[in-house]
Specification:
With about 300 residues, the chain is mainly alpha-helical. The protein has 10 helices and no strands. The longest helix is centred in the C-terminal third of the chain and has 71 residues. It starts with a helix and ends with a helix.
Length: about 300
């Protein structure tokens, strides 16, 4: 047994000096995929702008816009990943003395690498723009949710733009509480019949919207202000105050619903975008394998002629 082993010549297996990764086709496919992605994104932006109108009620709903954007994002991923992966497979050099399964794996890996590099390129080009857009959307949604009723009055809307003006309204509201007169009609004309009464009412409505409700004391004072400025009876003034507060609450509720709809649409868009990228990676891998197989078949056909 020992003589047999000693007489057997064991030839060491030498590894190939060439790498299994062909970066040239990967880079070429990645550039093609990223360029096509940018072109299709510009086309999608143009189509998206046709859904937006400056006229109230003419634009598409938030849900429709989000679904359309997500669907277009899926189409962009499929087309760009398919083209990039196919070019990667067709452009690579034929591997000789390599098992068919290994060739299939390498082609698949090359397609995936091309997709990954294209994704990084697109993220580098469009990353800042997408981050700015998402940041603006989140900030707008949070602003609407936290201060929805501020659009009821001009001063309150201005308060929503900066923290300084918002704190100023809060301070003014507390100061107004200190110097309220028992009978607003008896106050000096320059304090109640001008802008001061409007400003006080604005701050009261703003505080009520922030707190969730207008206190009975504030409602009574608003009724007195309205009666003093308009000449209405106390009952009519109170009815008008209740109607205005009801409108403010309704506007706040609608704004919160719009913010919640935007939040759900953004979440759905993000999830669909992630899913489309996973599908894009799969398509790029399959397209590269198909392109490589087609290249090898064509070359084999030429050699047999």
């Amino acid at each position: 047994m020992e003589s047999v082993l000693s007489s057997t010549e064991i030839t060491p297996v030498s590894e190939s000096s060439s790498s299994a990764v062909s970066w040239g086709p990967i880079v070429a496919g990645a550039f093609a995929a990223s360029t096509l992605t940018v072109i299709l994104m510009l086309v999608g932006s143009g189509l998206g702008l046709t859904m937006v109108s400056p006229w109230t009620g003419s634009s598409a709903s938030t849900t429709t816009f989000a679904v359309s954007a997500a669907a277009w994002l899926v189409i962009v991923q499929w087309l760009s990943a398919g083209v990039g992966g196919y070019l990667t497979g067709r452009l690579r050099t034929k591997w000789v003395n390599v098992h068919t399964d290994e060739v299939y794996f390498r082609d698949t890996a090359h397609g995936f690498l091309a997709w990954a590099l294209a994704t990084l390129l697109v993220a580098g080009v469009l990353g800042s723009a997408l981050s700015a857009a998402l940041g603006t959307g989140v900030q707008a949604a949070s602003s609407v949710a936290s201060g929805a009723a501020m659009g009821a009055t001009t001063a309150a809307a201005n308060a929503a733009t900066t923290n300084a003006s918002s704190s100023g309204i809060w301070t003014g509201y507390f100061v107004d509480s200190l110097f309220r007169t028992a009978t607003p009609a008896a106050a000096p004309a320059n304090e109640q019949n001008g802008a001061t009464a409007t400003e006080q009412a604005t701050r009261i409505l703003f505080a009520g919207a922030a707190n969730g409700e207008v206190s009975p004391e504030d409602k009574a004072y608003l009724a007195q202000l309205v009666a003093a400025r308009t000449g209405l009876s106390d009952a009519d003034a109170k009815t008008r105050v209740d109607a205005v507060i009801a409108k403010v609450d309704d506007a706040k509720l609608k704004a919160k619903q719009a913010a919640d709809t935007a939040r759900k649409a953004t979440a759905s868009f993000a999830l669909i975008g992630a899913l489309s990228m996973v599908i894009g990676a799969f398509i790029a891998s399959v397209a590269a394998a198909y392109g490589g197989k087609q290249r090898d078949d064509e070359e084999a056909l030429v050699l047999t002629r």
